[in-house]
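Agenda item 2: S-adenosylmethionine complex prediction
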Amino acid sequence: MITCQDLEKEIEKVITTPDTNSLMFSNVGDTFKEHFRNINIYYAWLTASVKVWKPKKIVELGAETGASTLALYLKKQKDTKLISIDYNSQWPFVPPKMLNDKKNVKLIAANDLDESMIKKNKKLLTGIDYLFIDTNHTYEQISKEAELYTEFLASPALIVIDDIQLGGLDKFWKEIPYETMDISKYHSCGFGFFIFNR
Ligand SMILES: C[S@@+](CC[C@H](N)C(=O)[O-])C[C@H]1O[C@@H](n2cnc3c(N)ncnc32)[C@H](O)[C@@H]1O
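Presented output:
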């Protein structure tokens, strides 16, 4: 079983490969390239982590513009499913190529805590082996997300959490009963991951 440190070493190798950026941007238009450049390397980390972890089913909670959704898509394997859930129904940074990939991409405009939405999408959500959480940064919200989505997790599953130093996430982060990896060097509000196992 790979440790968080070893996984991070593998991801770092991909991020620091000189042509990673050109590879990463090769599928997207100029608007997206500019946005990715202007934000930070955290998007590059998301792309690299998918390339290394090779998940079969990625679920994103909290997409906002869809920039992270795109980052999670760029280096996924051909048949990997990507499901993104946000109140927001826009995902403006998701390019047509992704929107048209209906077999593999599902964007759900909903409250991620809505149990009827979860029930309706039970089959789709089962077997998550990469969960990215970036919603409202309260302890209550992330605790409820953990409660509702854990049953859908594969084992092992990579759990990536953005903004671990914001709001109530710090408390949640400290309570995680697994080895955690703080990679806040990629994001000013904190960033980290752990590997879930049953
Ligand atoms: C920080 S933004 C996500 C940023 C995005 N992941 C990125 O890195 O580009 C947080 C998003 O979480 C969404 N959100 C917050 N609470 C939510 C909930 N209960 N269900 C669905 N989406 C939620 C908001 O609509 C917002 O778009």
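Discussion summary: The longest strand covers residues 153-162.
Owner for follow-up: CH.
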